[in-house]
Design brief:
By secondary structure, this protein is an alpha/beta fold. It is built from 16 helices and six strands.
Length: about 325
């Protein structure tokens, strides 16, 4: 096999071993350098005159890459029962030429399966698809709204998701003044456990089918779907909820959950997690009553422990910690 294909297979083998994290850490400093070399090599090989000489062929290859890959990914993910937004995100990610395509095309050229002119078309499609890819991701939200409003697509997504996408319960068991927990990872799990122990009602929304199935087997109200989707929040009873807890680590889902939750229920109390100053400011402006910047909370807790060690009184420590939490720019 070629050197490039051998390196790919070696990386795939290492990724499944117990030294994968160490190998990734060692290779990380080289990532930017190789990325620069990759794009420089593409620019050096590309002949702009090809677009003028073969505009139809170049456009056809680009359409095949963007539309063909995206459509295949969209249909596959929906068929597996994942939310529409997940399918659109995967489709957008696949709508470009990857590095592996150059290995395959070069092998095909050497074996006589592709003409020499095909290399130029692949390069043209690669450059154009990479340039268009950010636009595909920007289109995820409007396309989701458009497709979600189309009854055939909505019925297909719901049918593939099955009963997990419906929060069905007898009228006497329907939740009122409950908490909607978006995301059941490490943070969401702890919050759900605390609410359950105190007897407060809640419903979990998560995009992992296994998590939702496990929770339902334990009798925990749960819903399969994108917690940022307004229709999913409606099914979770956000209009009757007392608060929404955005515990997901996905910033896009967090933003949409805060915005849609506030829009559907203006009186709801919104608590949301974030990992950056920019996201903290955005969620606060979007309507989150308590946006929690995880790193700032860690810094505040550690600062409190340090100050106690130096002999400050509990009142002094609490005042300093409150000041840290109120600083809009966060810890420096």
């Amino acid at each position: 096999m070629s050197l490039a294909l051998g390196a790919f297979l070696a990386g795939a083998a290492v990724s499944g071993s117990d030294v994968s994290h160490h190998a990734a850490a060692e290779a990380l400093p080289l990532r930017d350098a190789f990325a620069v070399l990759f794009f420089v090599s593409i620019g050096m090989l590309f002949d702009p005159g090809l677009l003028l000489a073969e505009p139809v062929a170049a456009a056809a290859v680009l359409a095949l890459v963007v539309a063909g890959n995206s459509l295949a990914g969209l249909v596959t993910v929906i068929a597996l029962g994942h939310p529409l937004r997940t399918a659109l995100t995967v489709a957008a990610g696949l709508g470009q030429v990857g590095e592996f395509a150059f290995i395959v095309s070069e092998a095909g050229r050497r074996l006589g399966l592709l003409p020499d002119e095909a290399r130029g078309l692949v390069l043209a499609a690669a450059i154009a698809s990479i340039a268009l890819n950010p636009l595909l991701f920007r289109a995820v939200d409007p396309v989701e709204r458009a497709l979600g409003a189309w009854p055939p697509v909505r019925r297909l997504v719901e049918r593939r998701a099955g009963a997990l996408a419906r929060a069905e319960a007898p009228p006497e068991r329907r939740l009122r003044r409950h908490a909607v927990i978006v995301g059941h990872g490490r943070v969401g799990t702890l919050i759900a456990d605390v609410l359950a122990r105190r007897g407060f009602g809640f419903i979990v929304v998560d995009t992992d089918r296994r998590i939702v199935e496990t929770l339902r087997d334990r009798g925990v109200p749960s819903l399969y779907g994108d917690g940022g989707n307004a229709e999913v929040l409606e099914r979770a009873g956000v209009r009757d909820a007392a608060l929404i807890v955005v515990a997901t680590s996905d910033p896009v889902t967090a933003r949409r959950a805060v915005e849609n939750g506030r829009r559907l229920n203006p009186r709801i109390h919104v608590v949301a997690r974030t990992h950056s100053e920019e996201e903290w400011a955005y969620l606060r402006a979007a309507g989150a009553d308590v946006p929690i910047w995880a790193e700032r909370e860690v810094a505040a807790a550690m600062a409190g422990q340090v100050l106690r060690r130096y002999g400050l009184t509990p009142q002094e420590v609490d005042a300093i910690v409150r000041g840290l939490r109120q600083r809009p720019e966060g810890p420096s």
